[in-house]
Predict the 3D structure of the following.
Amino acid sequence: MDYMKGLAVLWFTCGHCMQFWAIPSNTWDSPQALIALLLDWTGPALFVSVTVIGTMLSIRQKQLTGQTKGMFWNGFKKATFLIIVGEIMNVFINAINISTNGMNLGAWIIFGANMILVVGCAQIFTYGMMKLSWKARLALGILLIAIYPLLLDWCLPSLIINGSRQIATSASVLITPQYIVYYLLFYLDGMDPTISWLITTLLTGVIFSPFVEAHARAATGLPGGDDKAKARSVRSLLVLGGLAIAASVLGGSWLLNKGYAFAATLYNWLVTPGYRLYFLPGLPLFLVRHCPNYLLFNLGLLAVSFGLLQRRAAAGKTIFLQDWIANLGRFSFTLFLAGDLLLIKTLYLTWYQFSVVIAIVEVGYLLVTRLWAVKGRSIGSLEWLAQQYDKGLNIIEAKVRARLA
């Protein structure tokens, strides 16, 4: 999973820098735009899924060994660190929005759907999801997918479009039911809106359920965790992932409706300012960020990629730069935040110039994080701070319990 997060770091660094450093293309089907679109599966949805998979494994292992006492509380404490960091990030995002376009969300900013906040919320949600069968998770996921276009159709006609062809989103307009529902569930400017990460979490809980069960049993030495069981779980990932990709692509015409058409035709890349690399008319739904087709397509790609990596590792074959990229993944949240510093200056590089510059940046990331892990013991990183936060809470909790005893 660290390797997958490392790949995601390489991608979102390239994708984010592409928006500010490369000369933009004018259509979604240009090489530059297609690279951004087809690699977007390593973005927010991947981080949510990887977090959910790791949390599911931890929960299931504890369930199998009967060590569930305090399980949720310990998971909740760890997740609160990400939520706090996410809320701080929301404050900065709101300040930037005020200075650039005058849109102030006020107290509503606490619901801002940035990636770090969403990952923390998904981690907590997973504890409740694990009490449901995979069939119940699938049913809830399908229900949210069915509700998605209906609610979006209800919200979109009431939204205000400003002079920059963006949806005006500020405290002053969040006064109607349609606007409030739009902001809380769909917020197209968000990195991973509420209804989108809920769908991703539930479907991850379905597709990766056999994998989690087999590997949790293997880790605890219980029957059902042998090599054959793990091999079957990997095959299920490949099959279910392939079905998810096919369903997302083939389901495009069936799900096409005025809501999606309205968003795709009127707004430039779902009005997300940083993604104005191309225009949307004609863009397939499985490449439209946040919609169910996109979520299912991304999850399918993750399942297939993850399954292939697992199969290769089980066969004892080498994985490209495995240690280096996995180490990069251990700094993923730090690099996600620090990457914004690269975007202070807007450049207009040719595609060739950009390719050279981004290659230097990516190699620099690999070298710096390697030295940081080996020589600096990750001190000062967001991941290190999370560990100190958890240790601090445990100390405080122990002292409180001792006084109450």
In short: The longest helix spans residues 71-101. Residues 2-404 form one domain.
